[in-house]
Design goal:
The structure is a homodimer. By secondary structure, chain A is of the alpha/beta class. Chain A is about 45% helix and about 10% strand. A five-stranded parallel sheet of chain A has the order 3-2-1-4-5, with helices on both faces. About 5% of the residues of chain A have low confidence.
C-alpha cells in the first residue's frame, strides 16, 4: 500500500512549499512545548538550550497571555454554568507560583529556565514579595469571589515563606482567601508535590467539608492525584517542572 | 502596586513591536489547540469555524509530524530506559484512530473538524480500510516489537468493524498484535470511551496478567482512568473530541 505510506510526506512537502519555510528551531521548540504541556515529557530539569529564545519570546509576548486566557475563560464558562448549593462550602484551589503570581521578572534574567535555578538568587527574589500577578488568574479569582466561591491558595512553598507569600499575594490584588496552605516542616521531605497537594486537598474535603469546584495550576502535580476537584485547569509553564 | 500590574502589558507591547504583528486568528487558534491538548477544553463538538484554515495547515504540514515525533521519541526514551522482566507479559496499548492510522484524508474533505461528522460518509471511508499509518506511531510500534513488547490495539470502534480494522492495520504495516480489542455490542451504549477502555485495561492486567508498560492515544479518554499503564502518551488531535 505504498500509495498511503507516502501520503503524509507528499502533503507536508506541498504545504511547506506553498507557505514558505518555517523556522525549524521554533517549530521544534513548539513541539517540545506541546509535549511538556500535554504531560508527555516529564521530570525535565531545564529547558533545552536551543529553546531559550523561543521560550523567552513566548513568556514575554502575547501568546502566553492568550494561552492563559483560553484556560481561564474556559474555567469561567464551566463554573458559570453550574448550579451550586449556597452553603458556603464551595472552594476553588489556586496554585501560587506561575499560577497566581509570576516569576518571569526573575527567569528573564536567568535564561528562561535553560539554566538550573540558583536557589540563593531565587530566594532573594521571592523574599522581595514583588512577583506580579498573572492578569488572567487575577481576573478569574475576582469573578469566582463574585459568585460566592471561596478561594484556597495551595502552594509547595515551605511554611517559613508564609508572610512573604501572603504579602506578595495581597500586594498584587489577591486580598482575601479562605486558607493559604504551605508545606509544613513536619511534612516528609521526600514526598512529591503531587502527594503533598493531594493530601491537603483530601483534608479540605474530608476534614473541613469543602467541595472542590475547580483547581488551577501550571504543573500537572497541582491537578493530578486524589481529590483533584470536579474540573482541573492547566496553565502554561514551559520554564520549569515540579515533580 | 501599579508598577507590577502593568508589567505584563508593557512587556507584551515591547516584544510585539520588536517582532512585527502576529496573525491574530492563528495565535488564537494556537491557544485553543493548547487548551484542547492540555485537557482544559473538554466535550467540544466541532473545531471553531475561524480555525478551519489553521487546523488544516497544522494537520497537513510539518508541525503535526514534529509534534507527533516529540511524543513518540519521548515514549521510546522512556521504554528504552527500562529493565523489563523477559516473561512475555509486557504490553503496550495503542489506540487506533488518529493514533495508529489517520483519517486526515477524510477530514481534509470535510472542514477539518469544523463540520459535524457525517456518519454515512465516515463509515463509507472507514469501510475502505484505506486510512494511512501515522508514520511516527508505526515507527514506535516496530521498535517496541523489537524489544519483545507485545502490542494491544484498543479501540472504541464497534465489534462489527473488526475485519475492516484488522485489514486497515495490516495494509499499512501493523502486521501483528497480541489482541485487537473493539467495543462488544453487549457493552452499555451510554458508557463513555474512558470507562470502556479502563475496563478493558483492567481485564488485561487482572484477568490476562499482562503488565501495561505504556499507553498511547490521541484522546484523554484513552489514557485516563484506572489501569492506564506506567506511562501514558498523548498524541495531538485538534480535529475531534471523544467523551
Amino acid at each position: 500500500m505504498k500509495v498511503f505510506s507516502v501520503f503524509f510526506f507528499l502533503l507536508a512537502t506541498v504545504v511547506a512549499a506553498s507557505h514558505g519555510s518555517q523556522d525549524s528551531s521554533d517549530s521544534s521548540c513548539l513541539s517540545w512545548r506541546f509535549a511538556v504541556e500535554a504531560n508527555n515529557i516529564r521530570g525535565w530539569k531545564t529547558v533545552p538550550k536551543e529553546c531559550e529564545k523561543y521560550v523567552g519570546h513566548y513568556m514575554l509576548g502575547y501568546q502566553y497571555r492568550k494561552d492563559s486566557k483560553a484556560v481561564t475563560d474556559e474555567a469561567w464558562r464551566y463554573v458559570n454554568s453550574l448550579k451550586l448549593p449556597r452553603d458556603g462550602r464551595n472552594i476553588w484551589i489556586f496554585d501560587v507560583d506561575e499560577t497566581s503570581i509570576s516569576h518571569v521578572p526573575f527567569f528573564s534574567k536567568h535564561g528562561f529556565g535553560t539554566e538550573p535555578i540558583n536557589k540563593t538568587l531565587a530566594y532573594e527574589w521571592v523574599n522581595k514579595s514583588k512577583a506580579p500577578a498573572l492578569p488572567e488568574s487575577l481576573e478569574l479569582y475576582r469573578k469566582l469571589l463574585s459568585l460566592g466561591i471561596k478561594v484556597v491558595f495551595l502552594t509547595g512553598r515551605d511554611e517559613e515563606w508564609r508572610k512573604v507569600s501572603a504579602t506578595n499575594l495581597k500586594n498584587v490584588g489577591y486580598h482575601t482567601w479562605e486558607q493559604l496552605i504551605l508545606r509544613a516542616s513536619s511534612y516528609p521531605t521526600n514526598a512529591t508535590v503531587e502527594s503533598f497537594k493531594s493530601n491537603e486537598k483530601r483534608k479540605l474535603e474530608e476534614i473541613y467539608g469543602y467541595r472542590i469546584i475547580g483547581n488551577i495550576g501550571d504543573q500537572w502535580a497541582d491537578i493530578q492525584g486524589i481529590h483533584r476537584g470536579n474540573r482541573t485547569f492547566k496553565l502554561p509553564n514551559p520554564m520549569y517542572y515540579a515533580p
